[in-house]
Amino acid sequence: MNIQVKSGEPTTTATDVLVCLDFEKEKTLGKHIKALDRTLDGQFTALFKSGEFQGKPNQTTLVHMNGKVSAKRILLVGVGSREDLTLERLRQAMGTAVKRVRQVKAKTFACVMPDVPKSVGHAGTVAQVLVEGAILGDYRFTEYRTNDAENGKTIQSCTLLASKDSDLTEIKAGAQCGQVLGEATCFVRDLCNHPANVMTPSRVVAEARKIARESKIRLKVLEKRDMEKLGMGGLLGVSRGSIEPPQFIILTYSGGRPTQKPIVFVGKTVTFDSGGISLKPSENMEQMKADMTGGAEVLATVRAASRLKLPLNVVGILPVTENMPGGRATKPGDILNMLSGKTVEVQNTDAEGRLILADGLAYASRLKPACVIDIATLTGACIVALGQFAIGLLGTDDSLKNDLRKAGDGAGERVWELPLWDDYFEQLKSDVADMRNIGGRGGGTITAALFLKQFIGDYPWAHLDIASTDWSASERAYISKGPTGIGTRLLIQFLLNKTNGSVR
Ligand code: BES
Ligand code: ZN
Ligand code: ZN
């Protein structure tokens, strides 16, 4: 979808669908609707009076224009009352709008820039979230459908329509930023939608290689031999049951000064998690093709940093593997020698994410990072604790955690903190090794994070458990059914905030 910004009047804008976002409980029609209403002899006044359209969040009404204005149709989308307005409501309204536009098989649509209180967001931010909503709401994955009726019937362009006196430069920059963020999330959804027989560890490397063609990005890949030399017992141990060789990706974006310490992201990239010898039940096991969401989000974040030309140094680390049973697979009771030098008794091969992340976190120390954030579909317990609307947050550094909270609130991908008290280490004790890889019944998300903490270096660290949000059972306004890519915009927004939101 082509994203454009233009200044112009709603009545004279030629498009298949003109989208107007409207507030609930207003005494008078909004500025833009008023102008349209005059041209249409009070059609909208009548519509509001009848109660058919009230402006409730995500409520829609589509009206045909029959040549009365330049647009073929007008789509009203509610955003709720002005005092309750949030950026998230705007994203959702735009997601709702784009779905309706597609329903009527329209090729182009334009959205009138709404009149938003500055306390909610400046014009650039409003443009950003509207574009995010449009791109994310329009997402579909049809690659493996040989006769999709909708093939080729994509929406060609989305135009943000600004009034003449508004700041076009700011709106254009915001829209561009929204496009990068939206496309980053769609990239993650694609990677996670691809089945595990296609999206193998070597294919993930190929995806990283494509990203490395972008400006200021370099790629280094460690192969099995290198891992053996370094002693990456965690990643090697998890990969043993699979015929696919493990990969260790280091993707570096150098947008900052050479002396500037890098922000390092470590993403769990299990291209399929069968559980290994501790095999998972078959119900919903197909969803485990998305157990690479963390890694895909890290790839997307590094790509976005380059596209946004952020003045930062960013490194993405991805330990990549399948987790499979097999004759050579790691067995319960096996002991692994990890990269950090510590030993782990594997009591459950399905707790594999922490084993590969442990090596990733230990490796990160070599980069002398400013901070390290790992992101992972780590524990089913996180779904139990937080449901589907919050990402689990744990970590050692308050200011880093606050920055992530702030980025998450802005992105509409909110995080919620759980305790990381050392008291819980009791549950990780092993009779034969430094620790075991499971923590027993209670506090599964906490014990998993506390396990990771044993492998961090001398750097501020935070951990995001996205098992709660990475997969949606239903289609929402701008969240797709299946892989959601939630967490991507949070990470990129975190970087944007570091640069005070200034996009060059
Ligand atoms: N990838 C899973 C966690 C997961 C579960 C993600 C459901 C998304 C949806 C992880 O590797 C796993 O299997 N964790 C185990 C840990 C347990 C054995 C301690 C779990 O959560 O059951
Ligand atoms: Zn597992
Ligand atoms: Zn897993």
Main attributes?
Leucine Aminopeptidase, subunit E, domain 1, alpha/beta, nine-stranded mixed β-sheet, 14 helices, 2 domains, single chain, Aminopeptidase, binds ligand BES, binds zinc ion, 504 residues
Task: Describe the 3D structure.
The protein is an alpha/beta fold and 504 residues long. The protein folds into two domains: 2-163, 3-Layer(aba) Sandwich (Leucine Aminopeptidase, subunit E, domain 1); 189-498, Aminopeptidase, CATH 3.40.630. Helix content is 34%, strand content 21%. The protein has helices spanning 31-39, 43-50, 87-103, 123-137, 168-193, 201-211, 224-230, 233-239, 293-307, 353-364, 380-386, 398-411, 444-453, 488-498; strands spanning 2-7, 17-24, 60-64, 73-81, 108-112, 157-162, 217-222, 247-254, 263-267, 269-273, 313-323, 335-337, 343-345, 371-376, 391-395, 415-417, 435-436, 461-465, 471-472, 482-483. Strands 7, 8, 9, 10, 11, 14, 15, 16 and 18 form a nine-stranded mixed beta sheet that branches. A six-stranded mixed beta sheet has the order 1-6-5-2-4-3, covered by helices on one side. α5 packs antiparallel against α9 and α12 (398-411) packs across α14. The relative contact order is 0.11. The model has no long low-confidence stretch (mean pLDDT 96). One zinc ion (ZN) binds next to β10.
Low-pLDDT sequence parts: none
Counted up, domains total 2
The N- to C-terminal Cα distance equals 23 Å
The major β-sheet equals: 9 strands, mixed
Number of helices: 14
Count the beta strands.
20
Based on secondary structure, the structural category is alpha/beta
